[in-house]
Design brief:
6-stranded mixed sheet; alpha/beta; 283 residues; D-Maltodextrin-Binding Protein, domain 2; 13 helices; 41% helix
Length: 283
């Protein structure tokens, strides 16, 4: 009997690029049947807590909170240098220092919110909104600050907004590690054989995209907030890299550091675990 995998991925360009081969079945599904749903990253986080998906993209903040039930797959992650969320404002030379100030964040379990909590603990009111609402609300002066992710990293400047701090750059300075934003989680209850096959399909899909970089553009355009191909490919160039193919030892070290720092904030005790050995090939 064919094993059905309920798969959730985000609508951001790096995911639609990396999963295009899987979605269009340009790679071998290895005897599995994938039922695929594309959602905003915080929606994916929430549904993982509700056990809606067998395998899904998640913020690494959510992954830490779900570590007892889910394991991180070596392939499909977004992490690197220069990839972090940006803290923006609509006023030049203003910083989060007052409790009456309002900061918009893209979801309670996102890594972006975790970083904001690390570096600006309890200094402003925080409101969680869908990431695509943050820049428009800042422009309308409905908030003082916003933590910007995805394509907004490339489009905020022409909007008349100001950079308060690159939260990813601060992470890099303090840890000397690439910033782990999000990765693919699989239910531990799927078992080793099924998880191994899922991992292999995802790795094949990432490699397919890298070998055929123009092919996924139509899929990316269908879901992206930003439809300019140049911006989409800049996004891919930044977020899809060797660590997306395999986290490796450096990626694992970064996850361990993120787990350690998250423990200091929310009291969680479980470290993220990556499936398989870094030197093994689950093919």
């Amino acid at each position: 009997m064919t094993q059905t995998i309920r798969l959730g991925i985000s609508t951001c360009p790096n995911d639609t690029f990396a999963f295009h081969g899987l979605m269009k079945r340009h790679v071998d599904w290895r005897g599995l049947k994938f039922e695929i749903e594309l959602l905003d990253i915080q929606e994916l986080n929430s549904h993982l807590f509700n056990k809606r998906f067998d395998v899904a993209k998640a913020s690494f903040h959510a992954a830490i909170l779900l570590a007892n039930k889910y394991i991180v797959l070596p392939s499909g992650s977004a992490l690197g240098f220069g990839v972090g969320p940006l803290l923006l404002s609509n006023i030049c030379d203003i910083y989060p220092t007052k409790c009456e100030q309002l900061t918009l964040c893209p979801g309670e379990q996102t890594t972006a919110t975790l970083l904001y909590d690390m570096f600006y603990p309890d200094v402003t009111r925080v409101e969680q909104v869908v990431f695509s609402e943050i820049m428009p609300r800042l422009i309308r002066r409905e908030a003082d600050f916003g933590v910007c992710i995805h394509e907004g990293r490339f489009t905020w400047e022409p909007s008349g907004l100001y950079l308060v701090e690159d939260l990813g750059a601060r992470w890099e300075t303090e840890t000397k590690c690439p910033l782990p934003l999000g990765g693919i989680l699989a239910k531990r209850s799927l078992g080793h054989d099924v998880i191994c096959r899922v991992q292999s399909v995802i790795r094949d899909s990432v490699l397919h995209g890298l070998a055929n970089p123009e092919e996924p553009l139509a899929t990316m355009r269908a879901y992206a907030q930003e439809f300019d191909d140049t911006v989409l490919m800049k996004h891919v160039a930044l977020y899809v890299n060797d660590w997306t193919v395999d986290l490796g030892e450096v990626g694992r070290k970064s996850l361990k550091e993120l787990s350690r720092r998250a423990h200091l904030i929310n009291g969680t005790q479980t470290d993220l675990e990556v499936f398989g050995d870094p030197k093994s090939d689950c093919s």
